[in-house]
């Protein structure tokens, strides 16, 4: 790595520091605050902000009062929710507390997860994307923010929060770097896609090198990283009951910077977030530009998590008001326009076009002829899902797993919609789970469409990688969604399917084929998030209270929307 790749940091006084100096500053953060003991066990389940309504919060007196009380409740709650706090097992593979016998793969997975840990100046700060020396590394030797999330959850569930806290603090410092692509400067709040530890053998010194999109293939900034960071900060706080990390002024500022990027006013006519292709887990051109479901669901979840960890005073209060407004608009928009079930599909099929004015039913002027053939067979009688994208005259009907699972976990989906998503997964088991959970999206795009949409991407040929490939990491999201909707048996079935192959195949990154039968053609082995995703799924099934770290209750005041449709107009 050439020294020109090292970033510089411009502080508020305009002083420029080199990366190494900047990283020394990380140690200036008052760590003593973080050492404060968590509060004692709270037996009574307190009413958390998760359960407080946004409407309740939008009134200013409540905003004031909601502040510390409700934030504290969310944290105190964690003791009731997450018994793992009391069973720290150090660096051992966790043993079951409920007499549930671990699969032999669990021990292997823990060993592999530990091998992936990355240290910076003696402290664990993350996990490497893949410990696979057989392939060209590209950037798989980096700590990816999104990839670290399942690792972090596994560590939290096992009572090892230190690596998660270090990760949150290190990435927070990286956020303050000046980020440039050619001569263009990125927003202050952008979080890196990934970072790596660079060891300078001459100075015998370690520094961090981060990628905000300026090195990434396609040069796209990761919109999801900041959202995952906020979601993880809340999971850490919930799991440990320690709010001192989130309360640090640096963390509060970090949250505000991330959200300022998304909440600023502009030309938008929708509350959803406009994105470039490849700005999330699907980080290559796949026709997910516009308003991809993955980002909208993560945005919603991050906004709700921010409400729980932001101090509702001073600068925080103004942001809280903005968040509450946006959540109302976003949930309405998503539940109304992204939701598809048999009835809605039939309505779209019969849409009139070229309507003008407020009375329009087909607001985005979707032409029924643009409905793809496959959707008519795919849609079960019972069930539904949030489609991939909605923008003027464009509906991407593809199913995307991550967005739909996060929609359930964040309660962006109503309880009925959540049930319907699970119904759909059950009815379309072969298509979505097949021989390896879970399809990242369905169906694959092929032939001419593949050429146009992906730009002839040889990595994303049909039923491979992002184009209909099966990604074991998604198992943790599926399991969490299953538990939240009271359908753990679905997760059990999926885990059994994965257990038949994952370890034997050495934890591939993804599988190919309509049924996910083949190890992906360019799939890395020993892919850390495949390993961590499996562990998290197992631990959540064993102790469903862990789901509280990544799930938010429905806001009772957010009523399901009444949609106007042509069938009601006669
Ligand atoms: C691939 C995936 C991306 C992941 C990265 C590291 O680029 O598309 O989502 O973060 O690999 O595993």
TrEMBL record:
Catalytic activity field: Hydrolysis of terminal non-reducing beta-D-fructofuranoside residues in beta-D-fructofuranosides
Hydrolase keyword on record: yes
UniProt-listed Enzyme Commission number(s): 3.2.1.26
Single Gene Ontology MF annotation: sucrose alpha-glucosidase activity
SUPFAM superfamilies: Six-hairpin glycosidases
Domain of life (superkingdom): Eukaryota
UniProt keywords, alphabetically: Carbohydrate metabolism, Glycosidase, Hydrolase
Pfam hit, one: Glyco_hydro_100
Alphabetical GO biological process terms: sucrose catabolic process
Task of the protein: Invertase that cleaves sucrose into glucose and fructose.
Family: Belongs to the glycosyl hydrolase 100 family.
The protein, known as: Alkaline/neutral invertase
């Amino acid at each position: 790595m050439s020294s020109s790749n090292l970033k510089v940091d411009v502080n508020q006084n305009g002083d420029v520091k080199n990366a190494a100096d900047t990283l020394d500053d990380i140690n200036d953060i008052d760590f003593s605050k973080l050492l404060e003991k968590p509060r004692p066990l709270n037996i009574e389940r307190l009413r958390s902000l998760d359960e407080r309504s946004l409407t309740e919060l939008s009134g200013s007196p409540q905003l004031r009062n909601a502040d510390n009380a409700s934030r504290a409740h969310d944290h105190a709650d964690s003791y009731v929710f997450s018994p793992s706090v009391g069973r720290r097992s150090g660096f051992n593979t966790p043993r079951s507390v409920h007499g549930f016998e671990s699969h032999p793969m669990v021990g292997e997975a823990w060993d592999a997860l530990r091998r992936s840990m990355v240290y910076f100046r003696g402290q664990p700060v993350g996990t490497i994307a893949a410990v696979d020396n057989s392939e060209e590394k590209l950037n798989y030797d980096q700590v990816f923010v999104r990839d670290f999330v399942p690792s972090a959850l596994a560590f939290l569930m096992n009572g090892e929060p230190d690596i998660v806290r270090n990760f949150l603090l290190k990435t927070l410092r990286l956020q303050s770097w000046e980020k440039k692509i050619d001569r263009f400067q990125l927003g202050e709040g952008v979080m890196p896609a990934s970072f790596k530890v660079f060891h300078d053998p001459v100075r015998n010194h370690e520094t961090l090198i981060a990628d905000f999109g300026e090195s990434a293939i396609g040069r796209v900034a990761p919109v999801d990283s900041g959202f995952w960071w906020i979601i993880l900060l809340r999971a850490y706080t919930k799991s440990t009951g320690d709010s001192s990390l989130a309360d640090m002024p640096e963390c509060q500022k970090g949250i505000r910077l991330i959200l300022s990027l998304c909440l600023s006013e502009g030309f938008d006519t929708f509350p959803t977030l406009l994105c470039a292709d490849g700005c999330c887990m699907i980080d290559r051109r796949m026709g997910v530009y516009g308003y991809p479901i993955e980002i909208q669901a993560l945005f919603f979840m991050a906004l709700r998590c921010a409400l729980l960890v932001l101090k509702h005073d001073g600068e925080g209060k103004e942001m809280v008001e903005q968040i509450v407004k946006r959540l109302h608009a976003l949930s309405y928009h998503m539940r109304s326009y992204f939701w598809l079930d048999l009835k809605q599909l039939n309505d779209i099929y019969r849409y009139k076009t070229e309507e003008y004015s407020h009375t329009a039913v087909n607001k985005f002027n979707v032409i029924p002829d643009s409905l793809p053939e496959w959707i008519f067979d795919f849609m079960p009688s019972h069930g539904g899902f949030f489609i991939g994208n909605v923008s003027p005259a464009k509906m991407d009907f593809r199913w995307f797993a991550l967005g739909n699972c996060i929609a359930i976990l964040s309660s962006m989906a109503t309880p009925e919609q959540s049930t319907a998503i699970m119904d759909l997964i059950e009815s379309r088991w072969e298509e979505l789970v097949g021989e390896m959970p879970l399809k990242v999206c369905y169906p694959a795009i092929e032939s001419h469409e593949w050429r146009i949409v992906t730009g002839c991407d040889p990595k994303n040929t049909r039923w491979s990688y992002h184009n209909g490939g099966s990604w074991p990491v998604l198992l943790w999201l599926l399991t969490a969604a299953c538990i939240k909707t009271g359908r753990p048996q679905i997760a059990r079935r999926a885990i059994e399917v994965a257990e038949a192959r994952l370890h034997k195949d050495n934890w591939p990154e993804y599988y190919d084929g309509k049924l996910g039968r083949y190890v992906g053609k360019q799939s890395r082995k020993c892919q850390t998030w495949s390993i961590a995703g499996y562990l998290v799924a197992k631990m959540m099934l064993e102790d469903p209270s862990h789901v509280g770290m990544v799930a938010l209750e429905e806001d009772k005041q957010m009523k399901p929307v009444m949609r106007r449709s042509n069938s009601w107009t006669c």
